[in-house]
Amino acid sequence: MKLKRLLCAAASAVFCLSLAGCVISAPQTVLTVDGEPIPAGLYLSYQYSAYAEAASQLSSNEELEDATIEDVPADEWVHTRTIELIRRHVYVERAFEAQGLSIPEDEAASAQSAADQYYEANEELIAANGIGKESYRTFYMNQVKYSALLEAYLEEHRSDVQLDEAKEYMDSTYAHIYQLALPSTDTSYQLLDEDAAAALMDAANKAIDKMKAEGSTLDEVADEVLEEVLPLSGREYTDSSVSEYFSERYVSEDSTLYGKDFSLAMLAAEVGSCGLYTASTSPVLYEKLPNYETDEQFEDEHFAAIADEINAAAFEEDVAQQAGALSLEEDASAVRTYSVHNIKTEVCPPAPRRCGGALFLSA
After folding, report:
1. Which residues contact 282 (CB under 8 A, 6 or more apart)?
2. pTM listed for this prediction
């Protein structure tokens, strides 16, 4: 669920940032947030985090220079997002201290060790692009503090969410479905020929007709469907085939398995309906299930997680509002020096770079 993403520290991001050209001295401070100077290494860390967010929203054939995100140029979006994240960094540091929170010694040691291990495993790439170990550790530990603030908020507000509010949220946010993926390629991952593809669609439609006519559920007809369609792609039906192609899940608008369009279609479908979704890479048979059968089941199985998700969204909004109110002063020259267009995703073989004997310092 969405809460998991909020609790996740950005330990796996690869910080591959570089400066183009040669300068006598690189700016050590890029901007100031509410009187607090932000050093270059920390700025670059959050810039790359914003860049990664932007890249995830671009299609495979889009370049940052030519793309737009939310109706603004992608490079402008990255800069705006970088500022948002840095403001949040300052707010989190202050709020963590103001609330008297602390990270247990063993957890702090473990987090710092994880940060250091990641840095050391990728040191050539990270250090060559201007981010020192202390900058990376500061970035990493801020995510840990954010999670601690969130946990404290959830503990304080968990009882604020009412049952009806949680049920309404779940019903508008999640769709509970059975789904059966049907292979549209052969074992060499080539598309099925026309006859095989037609036979697959025929088998799928027969299953839908049976479910509607007899009241069968998708899990009850899955065996029969797979026995018919797997040989069409050169695959053998086995006792484990159903577990491989059939699943039960809750999907939301943010689910990525079959894309946003599939998720929106499942949210819009009526409970009890079944059908064939063909806009994904592979056709998917689906059946829409109720999110819960009774209030008792909802309370036992879903209420706590949904309440936390509602509160987590409120916390995120509150943090964004308070962080966004912090004053900001940018060094325009430094911002140009550390342009998003200098970001690269791999380390090239070293080439001579001399400019009056000056070296680029890791921040």
Report:
1. 181, 182, 183, 184, 185
2. 0.78
